[in-house]
Amino acid sequence: MKKQRKKWSLKDKVTVAVCLSFSVGAMAVGMTFMVSNLRMSDPIFIQYPLLAILLSGIVPLIAMAIKFIGNFIEHGCNRKRYGKAIGLLAIISAAYWGWLYAQIYPGAAMIYEIVEHDLASAFVMMQLSTEILTAAALALVAEDIYIRYYPDSYGENPEDVAIERSINNILPQHEALGKMLSDVYGKIRVLEASRKAYINERRAEYICAYEKYISNQNSFKNT
After folding, report:
1. pLDDT tens track for 102-117
2. In this predicted model, what pLDDT tens digit does every residue of 180-218 receive, in sequence order?
3. What does the alpha-carbon distance between residue 41 and residue 51 come to, in Å, rounded to a whole number?
């Protein structure tokens, strides 16, 4: 019997749309930045712009490779850890990129001298890594929401199969114990009923004996 799929909530729809849009946007920005950097680095890329565009294609390729590597992880909990690790790396990369940006483009703080070439090279590297990791992390977030509604998109989860097998193996024992407990509880109820009946009988005998005793005492006094 096929399971009925859950209906998408508005929040999840908006989250997936935003994540995918910004993921594509991050890859597009990364490609644009790489093309610009190649053209400023070597005049040959100005003469052959297609070559620069093809080389910039490495940005979405790496981002999607990072995203789809998680599909090789069998267990769902490990896939979540992988996604969290990519997100953490994106945050660290973004923080380092922000520091480099502030060093290279101080803006109002132009009283400082122009920065060294080493920082500029690091800035280019962190710019690309931040865009790649951000795109991959956003795609992983969208995928995580998607599989909540389409859990069979990856086939059977080995963890779920193992748990279901264990439950099926233990279930007969639990059913047998449940029946045994039911029988025990039934005997207990019978014994409690017998105990109450016995107490009521003894109480009735005591009352009869006491009344008989009182009657005999009154008869003895009258005589």
Report:
1. 676 655 444 444 445 5
2. 888 888 899 999 999 999 998 888 888 888 888 788 777
3. 13
Cα end-to-end span (Å), the chain:
91
Distances (CA, A) of 130 to 72, 92, 111: 24, 9, 28
Is the pTM higher than 0.70? The answer reads no
Query: What is d(CA 65, CA 133) in angstroms, rounded to the nearest whole number?
Result: 11
pLDDT at residue 114, rounded to an integer: 44
In this structure, what token pair is assigned to residue 26? 């991050």
Integer Cα distance of 122 and 99 in angstroms: 11
Tokens encoding 123: 């800035």
Dihedral sign for Cα atoms in the order 116, 117, 123, 125: negative
